[in-house]
Amino acid sequence: MLSRILATAALEFSIARRNRWVIVSVAMMMLFSLVLAFAGAAPAGQMAVDPLSVTVASLISLAVYLVPLIALLISFDAIAGENERGTLALSLAYPLARTELLLGKLIAQLAVVSIAVVAGYAVAAIVAFVTGGTGAAEGIPALWRLIWTSILLGAAFLSLGHAMSCLSRRPSGAAAMAIGLWLVMIVLYDLGLLAAVVADDGGAFTTDVFPWALVVNPADAFRIFNLAASGAVDAASGLSGAASSIAVWKPLAAIMVWPILAAGLARLSFQRVTP
Amino acid sequence: MTILTLSQLTKRYGDTTVLHDVSLEIVAGERVALLGHNGAGKSTLMKLVLGLIQADGGRIEVAGHAPGSPVARALTAYLPENAAFHPAITGREQLRYYLRLRGQPVRLADELLERVGLADAAGRRIGTYSKGMRQRVGLAQALIGGPRLMVLDEPTSGLDPVSRREFYTLLDELAAKGTAILLSSHALSELEARTDRMVILARGKQVAEGTLAELRADAALPLSVTVKPRNGQARRVAEAFPTGVVSEDRVIFSCAPAEKLAVLEKIAALRDHIEDYDVHAASLDDLYSHISKRAA
């Protein structure tokens, strides 16, 4: 079983490398991190925190948008593409279980996301050390937390991408669904919550539903956990005020559970696919 | 030994019955061709045999095991119709992957590619391959591990005549070693009569089964006889064969297989008036279209 998963992962990683997904993802993360590392350093002058922590706080907002996007872009083709090429029927005629095929792809694509995340944050960290000196070392725990939570966030969205890939007959349809999912979960979800909070004006929604709604979305859970854990202030998010009022274990649990939940969802969707 | 058993297999998609009561047995070393137009149910039958889809009625056994079970999958090789492997990887990488899935050593990849004539292209990306070359990659992966049952969906499509011949030689070798082979085609002429038995499907129904000789005898298609009279003898010859049509100084008529000898005797008796003659048996395509039409 393990050898078949690893064989699938190895082949999938070769494909990702040749398709330039690795290069594109790393370049995207590095470029945006670099921009934020310089831009984020400007307002930090008055604050008593180290430069790396400031950089990490900016990177949180970046990761919330970029990591799910990269994950969905890498994963949407996984099943629909194979089905269109006719290789899905072949793979499934082999002694290869659907779970093994899906896991192999997930491992390879998670490796790509991890490389991109580490490379991007490393660039930002180096800038923080160069400009801030050894004081930046205080921010290392926050950076480490950002790295592993980003990888978990990526895992959740990779599996969601796989689910989209299973539910769509063609890769083009899967791409559209993946982008739609990104828009809804990353952009519209927060806007919707904000609008609801404003409309509710401190009512039951704001006190009872809103804190849970924030935690249930993996991207928001990721943001809140990182902000709360590092005690940083996120200037880019209107939701930051809420972060302080939510117990840290809640978003942490959401970040941990989502990759498993999404993988299960992908596996269930895969069962519906007829090659 | 029976490798594949299908009995009263039925498959429906909604209201459409794509396979109706199909029964078939293939023993070890036997090559069976599945013939039919596009949409006749060939690919559906194959996917049922592989366990990729489930039947609505009937029974399938692969060497006594359920289709799609781990044992059945380990015994079966498959070549899908028009398999297009990922263009970014090389032929060698693709084969190494399939070898690993079957728990075979990856060093066999080059050997397999050489067997299908792709040794020189092993290190090139599949994106640069022609259709025929991709088909050979598919064939190479089907050879892994000496399968007991091979299921080949239109294996010769995209192959040139020489490659097609090589392909059938390869099948002969496999069959000689005891592999049961089920292959599909949409034209009888493509098979070059290199299979032991044929099963013809039309709209999901089994309309004919047997060897080429049996199918020919059963159809009893007339032969076409062309007689070329000597100069000035056209009228004399035409009178001798009243059913004939005269065209471009030749007399053409058809004759039932049973009357073949009688016609030849008549031609021999007219040898002074005849310059040349030809007898054509019905072609494989004629035979196939006759059987398909009869079924309809």
Task: Fill in the keyword field for this structure.
heterodimer, A: 275 residues, mainly alpha, 81% helix, B: Rossmann fold, Alpha-Beta Plaits, 2 domains, six-stranded mixed sheet, four-stranded antiparallel sheet, 11 helices
Class from helix and strand fractions of chain A:
mainly alpha
Strand content of chain A: under 5%
Given the helix and strand composition of chain B, which structural class is it? Answer: alpha/beta
> What topology, given as strand order, has the largest sheet of chain B?
5-6-7-3-8-9
Distance between the termini of chain A: 22 Å
User: How many beta-strand runs of chain B?
Assistant: 13
Total beta-strand segments of chain A? 0
Q: How large is the count of helical segments of chain B?
A: 11
Name the overall outline of chain A. globular
CATH H-level superfamily of the largest domain in chain B: P-loop containing nucleotide triphosphate hydrolases
Overall average pLDDT of chain B: 90
As a percent range, the share of helical residues of chain B equals 25-40%
Assess the beta-strand content of chain B as a share of residues.
25-35%
CATH topology of the largest domain in chain B: Rossmann fold
The CA-CA distance between the termini of chain B, in Å, is 35 Å
Order of helices and strands of chain B: EEEHEHEHHHEHEHEEHEHEEHEH
Organism (chain A): Maritimibacter dapengensis
Keywords (chain A): Membrane, Transmembrane, Transmembrane helix
Pfam family, one (chain A): ABC2_membrane_2
Transmembrane segments (chain A): 21-42, 54-76, 106-130, 142-161, 173-199, 252-270
